[in-house]
Amino acid sequence: xxxxxxxxxxxxxxxxxxxxxxxxxxxxxxxxxxxxxxxxxxxxxxxxxxxxxxxxxxxxxxxxxxxxxxxxxxxxxxxxxxxxxxxxxxxxxxxxxxxxxxxxxxxxxxxxxxxxxxxxxxxxxxxxxxxxxxxxxxxxxxxxxxxxxxxxxxxxxxxxxxxxxxxxxxxxxxxxxxxxxxxxxxxxxxxxxxxxxxxxxxxxxxxxxxxxxxxxxxxxxxxxxxxxxxxxxxxxxxxxxxxxxxxxxxxxxxxxxxxxxxxxxxxxxxxxxxxxxxxxxxxxxxxxxxxxxxxxxxxxxxxxxxxxxxxxxxxxxxxxxxxxxxxxxxxxxxxxxxxxxxxxxxxxxxxxxxxxxxxxxxxxxxxxxxxxxxxxxxxxxxxxxxxxxxxxxxxxxxxxxxxxxxxxxxxxxxxxxxxxxxxxxxxxxxxxxxxxxxxxxxxxxxxxxxxxxxxxxxxxxxxxxxxxxxxxxxxxxxxxxxx
Length: 483
Fold this sequence. Notes:
Layout: H1 9-17, H2 23-41, E1 44-47, H3 50-55, E2 67-71, H4 98-105, E3 109-114, H5 148-155, E4 161-166, H6 172-178, E5 181-184, E6 204-209, H7 212-222, E7 253-257, H8 258-261, H9 268-283, E8 287-291, H10 299-314, H11 333-344, H12 347-360, H13 369-386, E9 392-396, H14 412-416, H15 423-428, E10 432-439, E11 445-451, H16 457-469
Parallel strand pairs: 2-3, 2-4, 7-8, 7-9
Antiparallel strand pairs: 1-3, 4-6, 5-6, 5-10, 9-11, 10-11
Helix pairs in contact: 7-16, 10-12, 10-13
């Protein structure tokens, strides 16, 4: 069954429809691959037993029999939920997230819980309390984060799709570092019900796949308004694969964000590969226009403040009273709160909570939080203005290829800046998709992102698919995972 290892959703559906393989056989094969390869990659915190997977999903639907992995900050009823944190050890989710409910209704097989940065705080999956996930292209390097487990599992051919989450780029950034497709939908297109909150005004469930068509297929299942989430948009469900014919729309104008592509921190190899991708898009018929979005230069600082302020508020609920672990030695309620949080949270999470409380505190909120919100409004305005002249934008996804473990242990600012090109999109609430565009001389994958206006997922997928089918990158995968 070696041909199944890196098969796409589309290919697997055909095999299932032709009865070349059964859903149960495909699931057994998937579990065997996790058992064989995930000791090296470390993508899954838990792989469920076969019978429990089969009984929880319907046997018909658009994703019937197709296995996938779920980031461990998205609730699955009756399954453990840890957000890769000690503070949630022993906690079992009591309900399905809306996205999970919709996937099960369409027959998807949810095989396990993906590793992640603790409470989605990180860009390398190094802050997980349980283990580090490795990049399948070079296991001495990080896969990116915070959805590193989801992305690494897809990149290694363990599953054809996975769900992650995005607050500042946590699907697109690792997707670029691992050579796969990462889709971040418009804020409110996919319900956040059942997604453990980090930054509520920024969070969005995202999709990891090996092809654009597969990403559009999963989006078609999970997108749409949800009465359980008041922030979802009044959008009817639709098939996002309908316009994926391998062609660009006529007279498509693509804006190249010059102050991103030519940013000071851009690696020369990455820049060269993105410029090649731009030429390829032009050869496919796109009209190229160079533009600038000046406020983007302030987005990392604004994101830093807003995300941490919201994290401090959202994580206040994890205190040992209702969820997960509790310090049993405390003599008073105050001691229980203090010791539970001190011992339960990792250093990165504690750092972000402290910063968040500081920027929200009396005397500082005006100087930091309110100004960051003003910058966010300016970023949104500039993107809206840009889309009056262009249809989609091209930007880097990341400034360099995947880095080695511990590379930024003594320079935390550089770790924070891994979101430099992705976080403006979250601040603006607009969609983006990262797709592979080549490899460095060290054979490390590089991606770039296409960014669109509000609710332009169909157009983004059409453009990304046209580029993808004109290039060989989607068919390439890391060695050592073929069987």
